[in-house]
Write a sequence for this structure.
């Protein structure tokens, strides 16, 4: 019985160490744009306040507060001061005034 308790305790300790080693940097973005007007091209939520990018992919779009979990020590955070952001696209035919 004591041996089973010991093995369970060791297993819990190992799992705890594994989760503790997963630092916030694993989720950190390279770039976070905050306090802007981000056009999402999603009819259910056409605009957002902030966006997070890692390497060359958008990893999160949402509120400024949402981006806190993606902001690490090496994240470049740009304050947009209400500026408009749109994802890059090839076709130049978009009607922004119809949103």
């Amino acid at each position: 019985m004591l041996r089973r308790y010991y093995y369970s305790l060791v297993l819990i300790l190992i799992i705890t160490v594994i989760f503790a080693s997963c630092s916030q940097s694993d989720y950190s973005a390279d770039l976070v744009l905050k306090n802007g007007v981000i056009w999402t091209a999603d009819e259910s939520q056409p605009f957002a306040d902030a966006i997070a990018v890692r390497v060359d992919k958008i990893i999160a779009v949402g509120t400024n507060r949402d981006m806190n979990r993606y902001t690490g020590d090496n994240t470049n955070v740009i304050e947009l001061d209400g500026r408009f952001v749109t994802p890059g696209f090839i076709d130049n035919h978009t009607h922004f005034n119809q949103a």
Summary: DSSP finds one helix and seven strands in the chain. The beta strands are 31-34, 37-39, 47-48, 50-54, 57-62, 76-79, 84-85. The radius of gyration is 20 Å. The mean pLDDT is 81.
